[in-house]
Amino acid sequence: MAKETRFTECLKCNEGVLLPLSDYGRDGASIRYKAWACSNPDCGFNIRIDNGEISLGRDIGQSYK
Known about the structure:
The chain is mainly beta. The protein has one domain. It contains no helices and four strands. It has strands at residues 18-24, 30-38, 46-50, 53-56. The protein has a four-stranded antiparallel β-sheet, with no helix packed on it. It is globular and about 35 Å long.
C-alpha cells in the first residue's frame, strides 16, 4: 500500500499548500527542508532558514548561481 503525502495548507491564501524545498550547504552537504513555499503562484508566501535565521515572505526570484 502506497503512503499518501499530505502537505500543510497555506494559511496566507488558503488555496495552495506549502511545499518543502531542499538545498546544499557550503560544503556540499544536503539541507532538507531549508525552505517552504506556497504552491499558489499568486500567493508567493515562503519561509526559509539562512544561517540559523528564519525569513518570512522574501521575494522569490531566479537564482543565477
